[in-house]
Model the fold of this input.
Amino acid sequence: MTVQTAIPEGFEPLGRHSLPDGTTELARFLMGKLVVRALPAGLAAGRIVETEAYLTGDAASHAFRGMTARNRVMFGPKGHAYVYLIYGMYFALNVSGAAEGAGEAVLIRAAEPVLGAGAMARYRGEVPERDLMRGPGRLAMALDIDRSLDGTDLCAAGPLWLAGGGGEPQEIGVSTRIGISRDAHRPLRFFAKGSRYVSGPASLNR
DNA sequence: AACATGATGATCT
DNA sequence: GATCATCATGTTC
Done:
């Protein structure tokens, strides 16, 4: 009989077949799902409350000028982690979304801590619980995510994966994306209306 | 609540 | 050499 770390009910990895085709659909689908991380101190998880889609032909996308060493995961099979360094100090977690061969991904911008907030504080410091995962850089810090997790299969129990979540359905708002200049008008950001755990200016979150 | 600024380094032109 | 899919801290309203 195999002994294995127990995964609590509801935190089991999503099957890849359950991920919708289409990266914009994936960005909507991931709202309310869980990001789960196996940390030395135990499992940590957050309920996703904010995502952004980066699509083919999208000048704001890292894949706009084709595949490079950095963005290669965006061109691989869906449901894998694309992790990159931004502004020289922070990491950001994306989920690859396109059919194999095209380069698309969903940026996970913010989440509501649901498990292991104490473990997250080890990497985030003494900040309000609300701010643990509010923003892509903060979320990556809270879950100790860096480039070593680039390419991780998010549909399998490992260091990092996606789970079903559940809980109350969220009302989803749509807005322009944050922090970009090219193709900035496109309505490709999704957020949980009324959630305190969403990042960005209040004016975008209505 | 809104805005300004500095930190800091890989990546690509 | 310019450009960032950001954050923390500061100032001003």
User: Anything to note?
Assistant: The longest helix of chain A spans residues 117-124. Helices of chain A lie at 23-29, 117-124, 136-142.
